[in-house]
Amino acid sequence: MDVSHDTLVALAKSWGLFYLIAFAVAVVIYAYRPANRARFNAAKKDILEQDDRPWR
Amino acid sequence: MVAQLTSSERQYCAVILILMVIVGVAMAALGKSDPLGVHGVIVIVYSGVLLYLVLSAFYGPEPQEDRQASYYDDPIKVGIALSMAWAVFGMFMGVWVASQLAWPNLAFDAAWSTFGRLRPTHTTGVIFGFGGNALIATSFHVVQRTSRARLAGQISPWFVLFGFNLFCLLAVSGYLIGVTQSKEYAEAEWYADLWLVIVWVVYFILYIRTLARRKEPHIYVANWYYLAFILVVAILHIVNNLAIPVSWGHAKSYTIWAGVQDAMVQWWYGHNAVAFFLTSGFLGMLYYYLPVRAGRPIFSYRLSILSFWGITFFYIWVGSHHLHYTALPHWVQNLGMTFSVMLLVPSWASAGNALLTLNGAWHKVRDDATLRFMFVAAVFYGLATFEGSFLAIRPVNSLSHYTDWTIGHVHAGALGWVALITFGSLYTLVPALWKRPAMYSATLVEVHFWLALAGTLIYVFAMWNSGIIQGLMWRTYTEDGTLTYSFVDTLVAMYPYYIARAFGGLLFLLGAIVACYNIWMTARGAPAAAVVGDGPAQSGVAPAPAE
Q1: B73-524: in CATH 1.20.210.10
Q2: Which residues from chain A sit within 8 angstroms of residue B149, using beta carbons?
Q3: Residue of B nearest to A38 (CA)
């Protein structure tokens, strides 16, 4: 397999941009989905509970 | 240590250590008088001492209690001790090499003590020895507490910890006898690199298996940062260290990368060592220990997720900013520069998230030096990431590159951010781990804070001044178009700053020694909850801040 310099540059300049934008959109959707709100709120508060024993 | 293991686990430990002794013997036999032979002897002695420890407790009573009912804290305690020992060693070497720049006679005319050999003992000592052990120890703590599950292994945490320290030992001892790959932050030779791959894969599996055992439905964001640290460091380490040894009996190897590709791979590695070793894992510490110490949840959990993915996906592209004005294609330089500037957004999101978490708890920051460590760390994180984005802009880089400004930038990050967040985390973790109400001495924490802050500020300001003067002197021309200043002229101009830098580093080192004493006294002091060691206790991780 021989990938030329120009091919790599073309890939980086086209798909490199699009996949990062697509990824950013996916992350924003995940972070702001209303369905995740309860779980995120629980996660940030739960670490403050200090029972110091594994749950069984 | 060994008392927590069942007899079959002790047998496994013995077998692993005997295999390591055999590997050491093979290295010594193949290497003969080559540095590889010396390292074979070090492997034999290191594994032999651990084997002695296992065998001397081999027939001791087995653990009676249900181990799954408690967290596995012994490896964390040893990890903290190793981390602090490396901190003192690495920072002492830093003060020494800094002093050599001001007073070159401190090399004492010996080969092993030249600047070129001592400098990587400083960088490896503080980054991998101090930082690495602190990351391993705190990751073991955070993953258990946030997953509400015990570590998924009895032997593997020890294997990771002692295996990693063997790597550090081989690296540092190698530099002193002239072993180096000449790749920054990846100086250790092929056999040490292979060993680190084994250790790191075990670390990754241990971490993933512990997460798989979790009782919390959601994986807390600190774990994502730790996991990015473990996973990406493995990839970086393997790709950058691909090399062919001269022979099985020689320490020397040659990289498979050639010319500008080698430079690109090295700085892709080098900058991501900053990103995933010195940032990602320490952000994991920040997102756990800061809220816990402040007693307040993180300001915005969503923002922490956005900045996680931003940091992960931007950082990986910025390495080429180390190669401005080189043979590297221009568009690759532009790529690195652009991503470096974009990186400011998720970096400041993290720093802002940390500072806004403290908003409303400023009285605690004022009264509690531990929380102040973390507050100042977040401020320095914001400053250093701004400076990093700025220095990555090509025309700025034309002034700063190859000067002390870079050193100042690195230390704003390493001292101001990485070391301060580590000390803040350790001062939160140590009393919790040893079941004490608080650190042995709140005054000594306060003393450490001011020594560390003063040391960092003196260091960074000295290097900013020195670096900018140096850069300007290098580019000052006479009317005839010749250079105004000779190289020696710039050295004379930097002399006072080099003395100031060594003094700043000395203050920082003194602070670390104070921390060692304080941690030691906390560990051996009277327990608050009457249960010493790994047993369950009533008290949690967050002691009441000294008020």
Answers
A1: yes
A2: 54-55
A3: B218
